[in-house]
Amino acid sequence: MDYRFTPEAEALKPSAIREILKLSFAPGVIPFSAGNPAPEAFPAEAVAGITAQILEKTPIAALQYSVTEGFEPLREELLVRAKAKALANERDRILITAGAQQVMSLASAALAGRGDTILCENPSFVGAINAFKLTGARVVGVDMEEDGLNLNKLEDALRREENVKLLYVIPNFQNPTGITTSEEKRRALYRLARQYDFLIIEDDPYGELYFQGAPPCPIKSLDTDGRVIYAGSFSKVLSPGLRVGWCIADEALIAKFTALKQTQDVHTNIMAQMIAHRFLTAYPFEEHLTFLRKLYARKAALCLGEAERHLAPEITFTRPAGGLFAWCALPEGYDDFPLRALREKQVAVVPGGAFRVQPAEPERCFRINFSTPTDEQIVRGMERLGELKRVMARGR
Amino acid sequence: MDYRFTPEAEALKPSAIREILKLSFAPGVIPFSAGNPAPEAFPAEAVAGITAQILEKTPIAALQYSVTEGFEPLREELLVRAKAKALANERDRILITAGAQQVMSLASAALAGRGDTILCENPSFVGAINAFKLTGARVVGVDMEEDGLNLNKLEDALRREENVKLLYVIPNFQNPTGITTSEEKRRALYRLARQYDFLIIEDDPYGELYFQGAPPCPIKSLDTDGRVIYAGSFSKVLSPGLRVGWCIADEALIAKFTALKQTQDVHTNIMAQMIAHRFLTAYPFEEHLTFLRKLYARKAALCLGEAERHLAPEITFTRPAGGLFAWCALPEGYDDFPLRALREKQVAVVPGGAFRVQPAEPERCFRINFSTPTDEQIVRGMERLGELKRVMARGR
After folding, report:
1. Domains of chain A: which residue ranges?
2. H-assigned helices in chain B
């Protein structure tokens, strides 16, 4: 039969990335397309040990219903750590979510609807964009520069668009560009939020994965009047499969998000929350972070070095200071490079269009991820992309 | 600051049950108010064994990102089982969700919005009602009889209400009433769905927990044109804390729900899905179900026997043929019985108002759960409720 979906649901397309992801894991394909932690990044033995302990000592608590707010000891631990970083003030509370993705869903559903506008970076994380579109709000991308959003274009949008309720940013090692927003721009964003009266969603899944020094202060740390909703995640520092993230925001926001979360999933898998809590408190978490930072710094250096050899100078790319991604720009005439890379060279990258609110014409960018492929795959993959570049150069 | 929530989010109140639940677990309070599986119902050792195996043999798969649709072997196993019960036809697919709650959220968000109507049983499960209200649709409760919805009132509502898109029912051992919808009425509901062109959400978390014979055929088994969305759950047969449920529906619906689920949580905790899969396939699942049926049948018989001794005849109650709940009706003049039970007798039951779409005036019902309290608590709790009843009778 013909189903009549709501206009918002009708317009929603499955994430192109997740569809490409399915292809990327076909045998023989080199996966620069994923956003997965490296296989060697998982503290698998620690998780096995922790889980065995939990199921031996408190099996019923780990399997029974729990409260929507989240596992109390985990919330307390995260709040202590947040306060130590000035990431939470006295009115702020924590809600544990099913990954940071759920923060985008809850915050946008609570605060924006038809007739409202949500601004985001262009390009941006497609999972967030889709959550925003589903609210019925108009979603508008604002172009990026090397140090974050183009502030002139942002102010243009703020003057032009109606009922701007939210600005969504990933200030650290952004997905997909790898760009870090400068401290100056972070302060400017918060100033603009006060001036134009909107809230900021600060999505920070990669902040701990810096290669050299820590990134500038979180926008949330500037927040004195409850305008910033901070989303954290265990996905990149422990495990994405466990689906544990968290939200730090004013208690009135957290109360509303909690009521909304009840309608989505009642509460986050409690065993996973207990695992995250033990991992934070009973294991050398800082050592694990240091290990991850070194691992990804090494893989990024390898990948960007090979890109320099094989892709430059025609294909340019960002040099991220952390995280999992770099963003590549193609010269004119190479528009179908990503598609041909997959078909002819068995190398999967994500075409830039997957990260646009509105299509860019022409689309000449693509995202590469350096955490998922092995070192050998990185070397071989960049070689093959270089071959394709040369073939395409000759064909012009 | 003053936050401006969307009208739907503004209207959403935290679930009264979950708030009462928090009180119920205060020391000394007898919890007839929960909906939790009995502590002895958890196959804790099996889960510990399964989990250790998974984390030993396939740790990365259990911790890495996975696909939104769900763990493929689990989906296949559930589909085979569904087909064996005529619960799925050739066009039907399965989506794994974060508990059955997420099915309500996804299905209603995809199919209903402002200007639409969702019908449900009155009283009904508050988590579903809240998910429905959040879509902006008008939610209308239709009164129940001993064998399910009052069909005359349902037809009245279908003629009266505009754009009825969905009917939500819990045909087996309904929450909160314990009522089982008769086979005749199941067929009538499906006929009406075709006649008035709406879809049915069949929520079936308790169907396996029958005390004597299996309940009548699921409405989904009558479905020839893709009108029935079936929600299943591991919450009552394995563990609610793991948050694993599933949806069986036409492939076009499943595709849309999958796209929506991406925006809520990307995918369901993959380790929990693997645990559920192993529990279904490598353990004697049927024996576990037999054990649970006996356990709950015994607890129900104990509870209703004590209710007969202490609450009858003034307070009447349903006699469920399965599940976790019975529904009690108070005579005139006892309206504050649930509140006084908690305050004066330390016995927590859930006032009927928690299950209403619109308040019933006067509200003279309450729900009792017989799975959470121990046998001793059931005996003591009913005694105390009987004392309160006698005190209130004297006071009239």
Report:
1. 7-43+287-395, 44-282
2. 7-11, 16-24, 44-57, 59-63, 72-84, 101-111, 126-134, 151-160, 183-196, 251-265, 270-282, 285-310, 337-345, 375-394
